[in-house]
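A student in our group prepared the protein record below, which I am reviewing. What it holds is a sequence and that sequence's fold in token form. My question to you is simply how this chain folds and whether the tokens agree. Do not assume that whoever made the record got everything right. I have pasted the whole thing underneath without changing anything:
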Amino acid sequence: MNFENIVKKLSRSLAIIFIFVMADSLYLSAKGFNWVDGRLILVNSAEASPINDANGQNDTTPNLFDMNPQYVLGDKNAPVTIYEFSSLGCSHCASFHLNTLPKLKKDYIDTGKVKLIFADFPIDAKSMKGAMLARCMPEDKYFDFLNLMFKKQLSWSLSFKTEKIFISYAELEGLDAAKAKACMENDDVAKEIMAIRQDGMEKLKIQGTPVFLIRGSQGEEMIHGAPDYESLQQIINKYLDVNK
């Protein structure tokens, strides 16, 4: 391959990347997001990004946040609630779902002590589309679909055909391609997701993912970053003891 052909091939590749980035930016802008100083933010809100500290730091917070969840993992009457502010494109969020959540589910969720609510906090356009698609899943498949998205995170996050990949995942769960595509274009669903994200940023000062709001009858606290399971247990047990 001579130098001229190499330059032409490189130019085509750069053009494709440019078009993809521009399309991504236009999509985000239409949904209310803007890029500022290299970071994705919701218009008129503070900046948000993945949290790099995976160890988890906790603090108390006033009782301001609430949401009417479409899906709940566990008994809806469980005494302790965990709100998980998470993005499907966040690697620490994936680690929590794939490594920590199964233990939490076995020890606390399946035993009726804790319920978990997934609070969408997308940090990029692909995560936003994935979150929108997940909300079209039947109740009994929602969290399974989230797990699938986290397991395949590297594949779809690096792809230029993310929407096509998402549709293939939806079809595995019994959702036809046309409906899956419509889900990712539903502005009402997008507004619901952005409203949750906005509330998290304004009321809880969340600036990245993951963040966990743990709430019992006597109080609540937040963990920034993905905690190890033992630390999470200590906090949960504290609120369970209050409820005895």
Summary: The mean pLDDT is 81. The radius of gyration is 19 Å. Residues 105 and 111 are 8 Å apart (CA to CA). The chain has two domains: 1-30, 40-132+187-242.
